[in-house]
Amino acid sequence: MTDHRVGRLVLMLASLGLAIVGAIPGAARAEYPDRPIKLVVPFSPGGGTDLIARTLAKPMAAKLGQSIVVENKAGAGTIIGSDAVARSQPDGYTFLIATLAHSVNPSLHAKLPYDTEKAFAPVTLIGTYQNILVVKPESPFQTVDDIIKAAKANPGKYTYASQGIGTSAHLAGELLNNLAHIELTHIPYKGAGPALTDVLGGQVDMMFASSAAVSGFIASKSLRPIAVTGAKGQTQVPGVPSVEETVPGYVFDSWYGLYVPAKTPKPVVDKLLEAVKFAAQDPDFLKRAQDEGLLMRVGTPEELDAYVKADTVRWRKVVTENKIKPE
Fold it and tell me: Coil, strand, or helix at residue 98?
């Protein structure tokens, strides 16, 4: 056989081999994950969501065999971070830790850069938690009733911080305003970290925050807890009353959940879910969750979807009835 014919035969066999490989679904694809994964936190570093995300990421990375890089994209009440994930490739290499704001933003904003129901695919609920109303130790406020009396005497004078418009801290304050018929002034920040810095510094009077964000400050007596947002008799902070004991009907829980961009393949979602379930058994993460008052609720994508849809309906009613608007 001439060299020319040998060359043609080699090319034909090579082409045939490529055709066979191409005909086998996924044959040329590396198994997921084969590179680092990005977890987007839609808040600044140092807040409760950021701390939970970082504690969760470590055991998840161990299960997946790839590093998980936590990236903070704060601003616009979680919209900036959420939009970054919505625009990402649906390949499992970018996912979002979402909060109550995910349920509220569709009602709070007339137009979002994404369709909340269509732009994301659920992975799992992580857990739910109560918020804690905190003040500086030197604050004259000892109880919720003290705040209400002072606010009624001086409408608009007293301030409360939040980690952004539409976040749990914002809505907690607005709900208190409306149910107690008072006027506390809302001061939004790009995350719990900078918000708490100003509460500690006395620039803002108070804040509703997650236990994850304030437990250390409470333990060091840098902040003093006044009340929690859970139902009467169901406080997650021993010795601290619920707001509902003073303001009837004042109850809500916040949550953490994980989302990927819509159209992410189910096998990829399943792998992420397996990693979360593994992380939920990690002793360090469980201790963090317990210390921060997080009630673990890891489940299925369908359960997160149903939970958030119901939460969205609930908060649409609250936002509409109380005329809560973005500032």
Answer: strand
**Cβ contacts of residue 162 below 8 Å, gap of 6+?**
169, 170, 173, 186, 187, 188, 189, 195, 207, 208
In a domain, 64, yes or no: yes
Query: Considering the domain boundaries, does residue 28 fall inside one?
Result: no
Identify the CA nearest to 168 among candidates 278, 253, 111, 73: 253
Q: Tell me how many domains the chain contains.
A: 2
Q: Where are the beta strands (DSSP E) in the chain?
A: 37-41, 68-72, 94-98, 120-129, 131-135, 159-162, 185-188, 206-210, 224-228, 254-261, 295-296
**134 and 192 in contact (C-beta within 8 Å)?**
no
Cβ count near 28 (within 10 Å): 9
**At residue 85, what are phi and psi to the nearest 5 degrees?**
-75, -40
280 CB contacts (<8 Å, ≥6 apart)? Answer: 126, 286, 296, 298
Task: Give counts: helices (H), strands (E), the chain.
Answer: 12, 11
* Segments of 251-310 assigned E as strands: 254-261, 295-296
Contact 41, 70 (CB under 8 A): yes
Looking at the structure, tell me whether residues 140 and 241 fall in a common domain: yes
Per-residue pLDDT of the chain (327 residues; tens, 9 = 90+): 555 554 554 444 444 444 444 444 443 457 999 999 999 999 989 878 898 999 999 999 999 999 999 999 998 889 999 999 999 999 999 999 999 999 999 999 989 999 999 999 999 999 998 999 999 999 999 999 999 999 999 999 999 999 888 788 988 998 899 899 999 999 999 888 899 999 999 999 999 998 878 988 999 999 999 999 988 877 778 899 999 999 998 988 889 999 999 999 999 999 999 999 999 999 999 988 887 788 899 999 999 999 999 999 988 987 887 777 776
Q: Cβ(177)–Cβ(318) under 8 Å?
A: no
| Domain encompassing residue 168 | 131-245
pTM of the model: 0.76
